[in-house]
Amino acid sequence: MKSRFITFEGIDGAGKSTHIAALTERLAQGGAAVVNTREPGGTVLAETLRGLFLHSGMDSLTEALLVFAGRRDHLQRVIEPALAAGQTVLCDRFTDASFAYQGAGRGMDLSILETLEDWVQEGRQPDLTLWFDLPALMAAQRRAAAREADRFEQQDLEFFERVRGGYAERAAAAPQRFARIDASLSVPEVAAQIAAVMEARGW
After folding, report:
1. Does the annotation flag 11 for ligand binding?
2. Taking every annotated instance into account, which residue ranges of this chain make up the domain Thymidylate kinase-like (predicted)?
3. Residue 57, marked binder
């Protein structure tokens, strides 16, 4: 079976985790060998950097450098070997998150992020990005009911609306790769949207 690299994006509280698990099961039932991973994280080094990224104060450039360092290790140790072996990789966040959070959210110069993307990824992009889109207020309500906030989740609604806008810009720039999912709907309705996207691609 052909390898596929599928990423899940959206602001915190969008409900990605539930649907990553469901899609993993669906693909496995269809005979795919599936690798589940996440960013920041996915390797021993990148998980260590994740702890610093989520819980230590730093400026936007330091954030970006940390996450792209972890991404490089993640690509080399997990993502590229899995794809080369014909496996399907499902990744909770990838580079679009850097453009949305550090770029749109923090106001970082996008040209720096573009340079890091070129250096680290050497042309590798997801085959499909499922963007879980919903208003910042609804996402905040979901987060408050689910868990204690990390330093990103403690940001105000304006920050998350900027992040949401950053995702919208990335989606507009790569419509062939992005599929917008209305994450404000119920779990079954969101699952149906994902199934429709997969079926449309013959997956």
Report:
1. yes
2. 8-194
3. no
